[in-house]
Amino acid sequence: MTRAQADSLTLPSSRIAAIDVARGAVMILMAIDHVRVYSGVPAGGPPAAVFFTRWVTHFCAPVFLFLAGTSAFLYRRRYHDVGRFLLTRGLWLVFLELTVLRLAWTFNFDFRGYEMAGVIWVIGWCMVLMAGLVQLPARVVGWIGVVIIATHNLLDFGMRTLGPKMAEGSLSWFWKIAYLAFAAEPISAGPNGPNLIVLYSLVPWIGVMAAGYGFALLLQGDLAVRDRRLTRLGLALVTLFIVLRATNAYGDPVPWTVMRGMPPALAFLNTTKYPASLLFLLMTLGPFILLFPWLDRVRGAVADAIATIGRVPFFYYVLHIPLIHALALLVSLIRGGAVSPWLFANHPMGNPPPPDGYRWPLWLLYLTWALALGILYPACRWFAGVKARRSDKWLSYL
To answer: Per the count of CB atoms within 10 A, which of 179, 238, 261, 355 is most buried?
Structure first.
């Protein structure tokens, strides 16, 4: 018996409800930030309402990539060659990010001038890398992920001198994709483009996915034992975040004590996302792991609706961006009597500031978000039903 076969014998015999609920919840929260992109509301700021409108969505990418790793482990029950599946699905996601999703974000065809390596891009490339890692024992993969997450901020100590060197030269494109991400200039193929803005770097996100792969081992066995294990782990991660953040000892390149014009409580939570710091990941994954046992027990109509979205997360993602963008056009038409040309700029990272007077009040942002969810849910429920009834291979790519 191979080690991979031995690992597979420990897999839970039924679908883990908490995974669907968690994925559905983060997809719902994610839509808040994507409505914000078209609302003109800034990505955070001193007003608490604006800050938390952005902050609550910080849980989305870490939890989703972490659970993508957990799902990769669970895929081994369905796919004989899980490495091949991860490779092909990963490349498919990268292709969709640079084509269909690029068009959905912008509603323009300026492909030469603007491309964005967003969250779907990094999920895709992490899956490609995981196609190789899954040949190793799950415990080893998990620890590789933990080491990447825990140690990558060691680079912070040399970034003042190392960063500019990494951002120049023939390998600058590689370093921007691997780690520098949004901290560096776009990757340009020349004056005629295309220009690629790397929002999510491979490090530390490959570590998050690999850690999620190993996390699946903690879900086996007796539920009471599992829940105690996860509760202790979640509390340990939250405590570590508080201690490291309070002391500014390690884990984030920007100490909270130097943030001017922001209340201390908000500054404490204002960790670095691009590239995601250790403290950013502790702040988001710690509470998630702590809540995981509870998520596995929630019941009721609301929980069922959230889990339905969580069963078809990529289908939801592909639909929600053009839908939110179209709703923003409608809002602009109603509020101003015409559709603002700004809504056809290179959103979400290459767009100029919104026109004077364009910014939405927060109540309108949340109303538009709720309307989008009301439209998306029936479509997700239908597609979840299709996936439950059919086993066509192509359905696993949506």
So the answer is: 179
How far apart, in whole angstroms, are the C-alpha atoms of residue 316 and residue 294?
24
CA-to-CA distance for 249 and 269, rounded, in angstroms? 15
Closest among 62, 49, 63 to 272, alpha carbons compared: 62
The type of residue at 262 is M
Instruction: For 171-198, give the DSSP string.
Output: THHHHIIIIIGGGSPPEESSTT--EEEE
Residue type, 125: W
Is residue 20 a contact partner of residue 58, using CB atoms and an 8 Å limit? no
Instruction: Take residue 46 and report the two structure tokens written for it.
Output: 């001193």
- CA atoms within 13 A of residue 388's CA, in its CB half-sphere: 10
Q: Which two tokens stand for residue 164?
A: 């500019």
Alpha-carbon distance of 104 to 327, in angstroms, equals 12
- 170 alpha-carbon distance from chain centroid: 29
**Burial (Cβ within 10 Å: 0-12, 13-18, ≥19) of residue 15:** exposed
For 192, list phi and psi in degrees, rounded to 5.
-100, 10
Specify the pLDDT at position 168.
73
Contact 43, 54 (CB under 8 A): yes
217 and 138 in contact (C-beta within 8 Å)?
Answer: yes
Nearest by Cα to 230 from 5, 4, 19: 19
Instruction: Return d(Cα 57, Cα 47) in angstroms, integer.
Output: 16
Instruction: Give the span between the Cα atoms of 11 and 79, in whole angstroms.
Output: 14
Predicted pLDDT of residue 221? 83
Determine the residue type at 240: L
**40 and 360 in contact (C-beta within 8 Å)?**
yes
Structure token digits, residue 327: 């709703």
Calpha distance 53→79 (Å, rounded): 39
Chain position carrying tokens 């200039």: 185
* Helix (H/G/I), strand (E/B), else coil: 198: strand
pTM: 0.93
149 vs 209: CA distance, rounded Å: 10
| The predicted structure's pLDDT at residue 11 | 45
Residue 129: per-residue pLDDT? 98
Q: How many CB atoms lie within 10 A of CB 124?
A: 21
- Amino acid letter at 306? I
Q: Which residues of the chain have pLDDT under 50?
A: 1-14
Residues contacting residue 5 through CB under 8 Å, at least 6 positions apart:
none
Give every strand in the sheet of 195-198, ordered side by side: 115-117, 195-198, 187-188
Taking CA 169 as the corner, what is the angle to CA 165 and CA 170, rounded to the nearest 5 degrees? Answer: 140
